[in-house]
Amino acid sequence: MSKSLIPLSLVPPGINDERQRALVQTFGEMLAELDLTKLSLVAPMTVDARALPYLVRAFSAQEFVDPNFPEHVQRRILSEIWRLKSLQGYTAGVRLGLRLLGMQMRITQWHDMQPMGVPNTHEITFSGGRGTV
Fold first, then answer.
1. Exposed/middle/buried for 22, CB within 10 Å: 0-12, 13-18, 19+?
2. What is residue 10's predicted lDDT score, i.e. its pLDDT?
3. What does the alpha-carbon distance between residue 130 and residue 103 come to, in Å, rounded to a whole number?
4. Where does the source fall among the domains of life (predicted)?
């Protein structure tokens, strides 16, 4: 019999009988055997890999994380998801997103092109080194 995670003092007086105390004791012992830190859905770098799809949904990151991405890339994106969302639609967001995928980019805005490009357009040149993902 291991130590219970739930103290018996938490059993309300109205149901505090031998059967309820045994149930709480058994449930508390089962909880004590679990590593509850792996169930934490707020730490993308340490959460159990099987929970990553749930973390993607919990963070509303479906548009940023493809389920076919390698596990370490999913974790990297999820760890930066709030910053990535705040920069969505900006050059800095594109740069961050590509960096999280293991790539780098060079952007040229339309007004910096020679000759000047079509207004409100840009060219992006991105590269990814071998083994960077």
1. exposed
2. 85
3. 10
4. Bacteria
